[in-house]
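QA checklist item 7 of 12: single-chain prediction sanity check.
[x] sequence parsed
[x] length recorded as 291
[x] structure emitted
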Amino acid sequence: MKQLSEADLRRIAVFQRNEITEHHIYKNLSTRIAGVKNRRILTQIAEDELRHYEVWKRFTGRDIAPGRFRIWFYSIVSVLFGFTFGIKLMESGEQIAHDAYSKLDGATDEVKSIIRDEEEHEQALITLLDEERLQYTGSIVLGLNDALVELTGALAGLTFALQNTRIVALTAGITGFAAAFSMAASEYLSTKSEQGPKNPVKASIYTGIAYLLAVAVLIVPYLFVQNLYLCLALAFAGAIAIIALFNFYVSVAQGEPFRSRFLEMTGLIVVVAGISFGAGLVIRTVFGVEV
């Protein structure tokens, strides 16, 4: 590589810091992950990142400390949401690094080798990432989708039919609790009949817990806020937040498109809630229900 400019040296220092940081992240994850094959692959990637660090060090001529916050952040994310999500979230920034490497003036074969290594990392990770919780994503989707669609619709109808936040919360809570166990039982029977790799009990638990969490988020506003319509608006905001967060998780962990999934689930909720809104208003008017 020819004489580097100050701008290139500053850029390389950033690359060097990133490599040593990712070395520590992969090394930490390799001690926590299950399976000999998984640990071996992560350990190899950690060693590659360290080698890349040494390459950049020859250009800067100095040691650079790793980003402690990034190490802590991705370690915590991986513990809370699974190593699949943590690693893929981190790897999503690799393409930016690839583009930045290629912009260096007079890139050497060593730099090109680093780029190839980074691309190989992504391929290795695709074969590595086989995590139990991702096998049950369909069960979680079933629980969340049913809870959000059914309960937002029920809340809209109950809000306009009953006109009392406490009674709406009580009715929706009982309905949601019963529906969660019903959905869990249905998922158990469905998974058992498929005779696939998923455990029916675990599938039912994932479905039931997802349903109950969604129910809790939706009815909480009715327990603390007196204005009926504000409660309904907050319930809708909570539903959309759940949809956004879960679909972001799936889009990162499984590489699926975020926008289409998010819009589809949100559209279903809006349509069902709109119909239920009208039904609640009609029932209240026709039957003269006053609470």
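[x] summary fact logged: The two ends are 80 Å apart (CA to CA).
[ ] second reviewer sign-off
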